[in-house]
Amino acid sequence: QVQLVESGGGLVQPGGSLRLSCAASGGMLSLFAMGWFRQTPGKERDLVAHIRRNGTTWYKESVKGRFTISRDNARSTAYLQMDSLKPEDTAVYYCNAGYYRDTFNPSDYWGQGTQVTVSS
Q1: Rounded to whole angstroms, how far apart are CA atoms 96 and 22?
Q2: Which of 13, 59, 82, 97 has the fewest Cβ atoms within 10 angstroms?
Q3: Residues 22, 25, 26, 32, CA torsion sign
Q4: Beta bridge partners of 6
Q5: How confident is the prediction along the chain (120 residues), in pLDDT tens digits per residue?
Q6: What is the DSSP string of the chain?
Q7: CA distance 65 to 96
Q8: What is the rounded distance in angstroms from the CA atom of residue 18 to the CA atom of residue 80?
């Protein structure tokens, strides 16, 4: 069993940046592909980016060139660097420790979520 703890959300102006962190317990991050999802009220959780165990990344079209996902297995932490933020990026962001087979497959291992609000 792995526990995920997210941090780094907050209020930022349009065009600003935030870096989200997702720390996995027990040094277990290296065993998983990692995904970042976001959710707004009344909508399903939506995959934003994922990174495979070998470091290969994928991004949702609307965040390409603005968001960067990375992982530090030694620190058992995954990151989502978000630049040039837009109001439509406002959501609760969740990380997930899953696996990759043709696509990212989320597991039941979710973080608690961190609120990102982009507003002037």
Answers
A1: 9
A2: 13
A3: negative
A4: 22
A5: 889 999 999 999 999 999 999 999 888 899 999 999 999 999 999 999 999 999 999 999 999 999 999 999 999 999 999 999 999 999 999 999 999 999 999 999 999 999 999 999
A6: ---EEEE--EEE-TT--EEEEEEEGGG-GGGSEEEEEEE-TTS--EEEEEE-TTS-EEE-GGGTTTEEEEEETTTTEEEEEE-S--GGG-EEEEEEEEEEESEEE--S-B---EEEEE--
A7: 22
A8: 8
Which is nearest to 118 in space by CA: 65, 63, 64? Answer: 63
Residue type at 62? S
pLDDT, position 26: 82
